[in-house]
Amino acid sequence: MPDSDIVLTGKNINKYYVDKGKKMQALKDVSFYLKEGEILGIVGESGSGKSTLLRHISCLEKPDGGTFFYKGVEYTGKSASFAGAFLQMIFQDAQMSFDPRMKMKKAVVEAQKNCSHDKLSGILKAVGLDESLLEKKAGNMSGGQCQRMSIARALCSDARILLCDEITSALDVTTQAQVVALLQQLREKEGLAMIFVSHDIALVSMLCDRIMVMKNGECVEEGQTGKVLGNPQHEYTRELLDNLIELKM
Q1: Residue 176 CB partners (closer than 8 Å, separation 6+)
Q2: Predicted structure pTM score
């Protein structure tokens, strides 16, 4: 695998929190890489460290140890606005990620001053939204519309990496499928790389090229999605798959 294909790297990321006077380690020497145009899935139960890792990748939090690189250049400890030049976070609760007082026209471009009207129109078309929705506020839109609008906001930045934090968990099955199809189209047409965090291993298996399994802040298994899910090596991965099979029965 040529190093030139790698756009994002995390090496030995550690994070500690203090809870009720007790020091807890939320991330334990987590390392990963993301290639150009690739979708990396991160799965694990609640509290496994998935969302915590995304917050650190996006510089919303600073790690207590380890290093992040974008195309070989270290950016550990930089501001979220610095990281926003090349990556964008799409949050789990899309509606709550918008200021409820703002119309979408302002909310979508508020952090992206260089997003022209023509560019925004093209992005809205790409995510399957009508321009009339720009006159609405988040509270007057459906969950699916808000999630698509949050993707549009991310695309306004010219970011090459999308960080998707449980973005389908609050959506119905039909809307989930639409959002997943949209992400696939964006990868194929725009060459965007993505990290897709989810507790839904079935969804990850359909969307992601590679998969990273996290438990208690550690990466316990990583590899091509088909290989990991077809022949899991770690007990916890097998447990996740067993739970999926039980839900389908």
Answers
A1: 168, 203
A2: 0.89
